[in-house]
Amino acid sequence: MELNSNQIQEILPHRYPFLLVDRITECIPGQSAAGIKCVTANEMHFLGHFPQKHVMPGVLILEALAQTGAVAILTEEENKGKIVLFGGVKSARFKRQVVPGDVLELKCEIINRRGPVGVGKAVATVDGKVAVIAELTFAIDAQS
Fold this sequence. Notes:
Layout: H1 5-11, E1 23-28, E2 32-38, H2 58-74, E3 84-94, E4 103-114, E5 117-126, E6 129-140
């Protein structure tokens, strides 16, 4: 399944400037999702990170990966309308800088689940080269 930005907003609660996935290119509900983020110099974080050398903050790349994984979880019928929260980040590695003009390819595979808590293996690449690899823990908010 592919999703455009309007369809993503029907699933995720995030909005500008914090919606960090432009398109979902592939999604298997409950299992995995892949998407893209087109990085531009017009983004708010580049005002201060860094004005003289724009570099996308690693924490925002992790957030984009988490949002991609959240789409995989929230497209499951039983989770529609819920919110997925960050539970933790394990073994994140930053391999290359992400700068304006890059197309960040995002992939998150759900590798473990126990009740409302799970783990996703996440990889962000640019031009086929790994930018970030991490293991992300998430929790489905029971209150949503």
